[in-house]
């Protein structure tokens, strides 16, 4: 059961991912959660570090696609100035949003990786969809009210993952 929530990699931040690392693992596109993964949930403008990371991905011809449970207007407001594509109302941890990415962007799941800060939605959803996953630390420690429920349950699951996979669940700075 706990395997359903196990990420393929555990990284400090999305900014630690490089095009070279992705190519090594035959990854051609990065799917990412929005809030607390790509941007702080309470600061939709992003940081200079984020803009530099997105620029690197674009230069390497690696699309970054936001897969969010938020409504379209919220996601569009957050990513339009970054020039990113997105899928809203993804219904993670279900596979709807992931299948929409595969279909709309004509990308096979083997070439994708999902990056997220939540085991319960991002990692569980990508595992269900057969897409590799990267768990990152949340950008800020506070969460929107609707995420706090998941965080409580997530603590219990994380404890089990750390017990069963102590080496694999260590925070790293590269894949």
Short characterization:
With 175 residues, this protein is α/β, with parallel strands linked by helices.
- The CATH homologous superfamily is called HAD superfamily/HAD-like
* Helix content range: 25-40%
Succession of helices and strands? EHEHEHEHEHEH
Query: Would you identify the CATH architecture?
Result: 3-Layer(aba) Sandwich
User: What structural class do you assign from the helix and strand content?
Assistant: alpha/beta
Strand order of the largest sheet: 1-6-5-2-3-4
Contiguous uncertain segments of 5+ residues = none
Description of the structure:
The chain is of the alpha/beta class and 175 residues long. The chain has a single domain (2-164), classed as 3-Layer(aba) Sandwich (Rossmann fold). Helices cover 38% and strands 14% of the residues. The chain has helices spanning 19-24, 48-59, 72-79, 96-105, 119-129, 145-164; strands at residues 9-11, 29-32, 64-67, 85-87, 112-116, 132-136. It has a six-stranded parallel β-sheet with strand order 1-6-5-2-3-4, with helices on both faces. Strand 2, helix 2 and strand 3 (64-67) form a beta-alpha-beta unit. The longest helix has 20 residues, at 145-164. It is globular, with a radius of gyration of 15 Å. The mean pLDDT is 93.
Task: State the main characteristics.
175 residues, alpha/beta, Rossmann fold, six-stranded parallel sheet, 6 helices, 6 strands, globular
Which secondary structure elements does this structure contain, and how are they paired or packed?
Blueprint: E1 9-11, H1 19-24, E2 29-32, H2 48-59, E3 64-67, H3 72-79, E4 85-87, H4 96-105, E5 112-116, H5 119-129, E6 132-136, H6 145-164
Parallel strand pairs: 1-6, 2-3, 2-5, 3-4, 5-6
